[in-house]
Design goal:
Elements lengths: L4 H10 L4 E5 L3 H14 L3 E5 L1 H5 L3 H13 L5 E8 L2 H10 L3 E4 L6 H15 L5 E6 L11 E2 L9 H11 L3 E4 L7 E2 L7 H10 L5 E3 L7 H9 L2 E6 L1 H20 L4 H24 L21
Parallel strand pairs: 1-2, 1-10, 2-3, 3-4, 4-5, 5-7, 6-8, 7-9, 9-10
Bound molecules: 1,3-dihydroxyacetonephosphate.
GO cellular component, one term: cytosol
Organism: Amycolatopsis endophytica
Cofactor: Zn(2+)
Amino acid sequence: MRADLRELVTRQVKAGAAVPAFTCYGADTALAVVAAAEALRLPVVLLVAPSSATAASGPKLIATLRHIADDSAVPVCVQLDHAKDEAVIRRGIDAGADAVLADGSHLPPEDNAAFVRRVRQFARPAGVVVEAELGSVPGAEDQAGAHSADMAGKTDPATVSPFLTASGAQLLACGVGNVHGLYRGEPALDWRLLAAIRAQAGDVPLVLHGASGLAETDLRAAASAGVGKVNVNTELRTAMLDAIERNIAACRSAGEDMLTLAGATASAADEVARHLLSVMADVSAPSAGMGVVRSPEPAQSG
Ligand code: 13P
């Protein structure tokens, strides 16, 4: 079922939880992620990478994910990730995206805010939620190089409140030592900085990109510190590519067996998604996810 990302994330934040968002390069990944969310009765976000959104087939992928989301038994949002171009965002909204990261993080803060404000103007009538990014998250979206957090890219808490007022952003992605792809050495999130950003962000939920490679303790701590959405890509890709590597030879020699290979990648994606969903809903914590958005058990027939 379709869901409003802002409302969903706000409810999870109040419960000390967060919604995981997974990059889906195709329908197979989205189906596996949504199946995991349905099994746990938890909401989830399907991310469309900028490389996918800007490809000629981008609108068809978005429409396909929209269909999977609408058909699901749990709240599912389809979000355009790191969209830097207004035309691509308009196209994505027309194709069925219900949230977008209007990414002006490469621009000076005033230009970033103006870009987000323009996107909000045409996104609002369509009911599309707009996330912004202030500061930057090093690393690439689609290839997992090893990166260390760049001090210069971290979000300056002093800029947060003026930026949110000027941009009207509904969610805020920030740089607190998080990186896309692999972490060089041990990840070291700057918790004091995150708390300072949280204090300046008012009721705007925070988003943590680059969640792959973070320890469960860090992920739980981020949710407790007011992060309402965590973005995951590399961990999912790695698990699916590992599954291909493990199964490809047997599948080839078993008469070009595509079904077994597809089953193996789907179950790898399912496993990663279940793990992250469980951790971010904090289901094993003593508070046992009080107030976490969880869909009701399906009615028993007979
Ligand atoms: P990772 O690839 O590090 O998980 O980052 C994903 C991400 O932040 C997508 O926006």
